[in-house]
Specification:
Chain B: Heterodimer of an alpha and a beta subunit. The structure holds two protein chains of two kinds. Chain A contains 13 helices and nine strands. Chain A is an alpha+beta fold. The two termini of chain A are 28 Å apart. Chain B has one domain: 3-Layer(aba) Sandwich (Rossmann fold), CATH 3.40.50. Classes of the chains: A alpha+beta, B alpha/beta.
Chain lengths: 404, 267
């Protein structure tokens, strides 16, 4: 019995090939170097542009070039396709670091990596990889088009149709709230080849911008304003047979699979955002004096900082744990939902409180603290709303505790 | 061998040069340094990174190669430091250095400039380097001595506080930042060049290069394998924080300023 336990124990240690047991916040030397490098990029090249990009609701081309040049737009892609050939945890760390400075830039990087590049990595045929991955890692932004006016949380009720023709398909329909759509050149479009099959007709197509993707409207938003969100029209857009991602009818599987890990990316964005707001507001409270001492030295403030700091730490551990589970090839759906749900919740709470900590100054747009709060609201909405995350977690609970 | 005066001609006719970049792992420039309660040192448990002047040296070596591919044959980073200093070497490799040498010393051993200079001389004699590019000083000890000592030990030219560097026909042309302006000097390679702040703005390593750096070789050498010792000649007697700034005083007019300054004997 004891032998058995020891044997199983040592098997587990050996099978855990990524790292020996260590604290969740322990990072490898490469991960620390990447974090450092993204931090420097964010501080020097992105930080001076954040306010202007927010006010003008426009993503700077310069920032986009920096992301490509630093190898942040194909983090997990093989080096033969000009990718960085790094890990999922590296993606998470990069998204977190970018969000500390600008959650808009962070989501651009997040969607491109965790949704678009990952779909190509996992489901594309070799010729599709050879054609598209080098573009996606070099200078072309990708966009993931699932949501529609009448299909959000109920993603598989989508109405966009793909009608079979001789050597391809004709796409017709409207997509909504599509992140990165204004800058993107490559679109992953979900459409149904046969509505009578229900979700089993859903297929993912690769569409090049010049094949007729029309931007109908660029949304004006509360937060992440520099990140584009558009309505897209597909009017008789022809795509070739070889532009079907994976297989016909496998779109729903791709979407579920990818959105599960995508949630960890949004969680990373949210913990970065919370840390960014915290780091902007708290130092100011030690400078501002009222009643003869620094505002941050009053116990009412101290306890609020301690509480927020603990929430950030908890969200970070949930997020890193989900990412490590994914890297280790273990189930992570529940943990990813928990991370995304909790991180988005505390991001909103912490960034909201941070405004109050900085008082009148926090309420002005000049300091950028209020921007974090505006940006946080999307965390509870995209890539699965808070209720969808809770429903996912609840499903696991029921599975475990019913029929006992 | 570091070329001697006798074979300088041969050195100068060569197209390619090998660059040695000595680097140091220091407390990160953004960290607020705190003195230990015993008053003999500072809190070392904080974030460390490459000495910023050394980062400039690494960057300059890479730029020399980028400007002229045929000019630079190899870029080697070297450090004398604890086990953790390997991370700093990896950063240099991720920026673009080809290989690295790690001379390992104990965690608490803060090696003095003369010992570092002797170590560098040892490896320069063993391998072959025509140019040593290094930070003018490390931001921890602020000694500003290692480069000069190394030039002395090797009996070769030195150009300190470089704000620009050109290499052509076996000669280095260096603009130096000096009190009151800029001075341009020229000399034959081999030469020791120490970098000042305005020489360049170092890049941050890109992710693909961070991944590639894992495969680049780091040679590890133990302190005891050197033919001399790295013992410190100096003992730190006391480390103290800078004096606390005392509050100023507000006055109402220029006349008051003058009056107060007179009272304090400042004018």
């Amino acid at each position: 019995m004891l032998n058995n336990i020891i044997r199983r124990g040592s098997y587990f240690i050996r099978s855990n090939k990524f790292r020996p047991f260590s604290s969740l916040s322990s990072l490898s030397a490469d991960e620390i170097m990447l974090q450092d490098s993204v931090r420097k990029l964010a501080q020097s090249a992105i930080s001076p542009k954040v306010r202007e990009m927010d006010e003008s609701e426009h993503m700077s081309n310069d920032v986009i070039s920096h992301l490509f040049n630093q190898g942040l737009m194909g983090i997990e892609v093989d080096s033969q396709f000009n990718g960085s050939e790094s890990s999922f945890m590296s993606v998470i760390l990069a998204i977190e670091e970018l969000a500390k400075v600008d959650p808009s830039v962070s989501v651009l990087c997040d969607v491109h990596n965790t949704l678009v590049c990952t779909v190509f990595n996992k489901y594309a045929t070799d010729p599709q990889k050879e054609l598209y991955l080098p573009q996606l890692t070099t200078d072309k932004i990708g966009s993931f088009c699932l949501s529609e006016p009448a299909s959000g949380s109920d993603a598989f009720a989508l109405q966009t149709k793909a009608t079979k023709t001789d050597n391809g398909y004709i796409l017709n329909g409207t997509k909504m709230w599509i992140t990165n759509a204004a800058e993107a050149q490559v679109f992953l479009v979900f459409a149904n080849v046969d509505p009578s099959l229900g979700y089993k007709g859903i297929t993912c197509f690769i569409v090049d911008k010049d094949q007729g993707v029309q931007i109908a409207k660029k949304e004006q938003k509360l937060g992440i304003r520099a990140s584009s969100t558009c309505v897209l029209n597909f009017d008789d857009v022809f795509v070739r047979d070889d532009q079907v991602m994976g297989q016909v009818g496998k779109g729903y599987k791709i979407a579920i699979d990818i959105l599960n890990e995508g949630r960890i990316g949004i969680a990373a964005q949210m913990i970065g955002l919370a840390q960014g707001a915290f780091a902007k507001a708290v130092p100011y409270t030690y400078q501002r004096k009222q009643f003869g001492k620094a505002v941050g030295e009053f116990q009412g403030m101290q306890f609020a900082f301690a509480d927020a700091h603990t929430q950030i730490e908890a969200a970070k551990l949930l997020t890193y744990n989900a990412a490590r589970l994914k890297e280790e090839g273990k189930p992570f759906t529940k943990e990813a939902a928990m991370a995304k749900y909790y991180a988005s919740r505390i991001a909103q709470a912490v960034s909201g409180d941070a405004i109050e900590w900085a008082g009148g100054v926090g309420f002005t747009r000049e300091t950028g603290i209020e921007k974090f709060w505006r940006d946080s609201k999307i965390g509870a909405i995209y890539e699965g709303t808070t209720n969808i995350q809770l429903a996912t977690i609840a499903k696991f609970i029921q599975r475990e505790y019913s029929d006992m | 061998m570091f070329p001697t005066r006798a074979n300088l001609l041969r050195a100068s006719s060569r197209v390619d040069i090998n660059v040695l970049v000595p680097i140091k792992r220091c407390i990160d420039y953004a960290v607020k340094v705190r003195v230990n309660p015993d008053g003999k040192g500072v809190d070392n448990t904080v974030k460390h990174s490459m000495n910023p002047f050394d980062e400039i040296a690494v960057e300059e070596a890479i730029r020399l190669r980028e400007k002229n591919k045929d000019l630079v044959d190899s870029i080697t980073a070297i450090t004398v430091g604890p086990q953790k200093a390997q991370d700093t070497l990896r950063t240099a490799l991720a920026m673009g250095a080809d290989k690295a040498i790690h001379v390992q010393v104990g965690d608490q051993h803060n090696v003095e400039p003369l010992q570092v200079a002797k170590t560098l001389k040892h490896f320069i004699n063993r391998d072959k380097f025509e140019l040593v590019l290094m930070g003018k000083q490390a931001i921890d000890g602020d000694e500003n001595a290692t480069g000069q000592m190394l030039a002395g030990l090797l009996d070769c030219g030195q150009a300190t506080f470089a704000s620009s560097l050109q290499i052509a026909d076996g000669k280095a042309t260096v603009t130096r930042e000096i009190d009151g302006g800029l001075e341009t000097v020229q000399g034959n390679l081999p030469m020791i060049v120490t970098t000042d702040l305005r020489l360049n703005e170092p890049r941050y390593a890109s992710l693909p290069n961070i991944m590639k750096a894992k495969k680049k070789p780091i040679e590890s050498v133990k302190e005891t394998e050197l033919p001399f010792d790295l013992k410190n000649r100096l003992e730190t007697v006391k480390v103290a924080e800078p004096a606390q700034r005392t509050g100023g005083q507000k006055v109402d007019s220029v006349d008051d300023v003058v009056q107060k300054m007179k009272e304090k004997g400042l004018i």
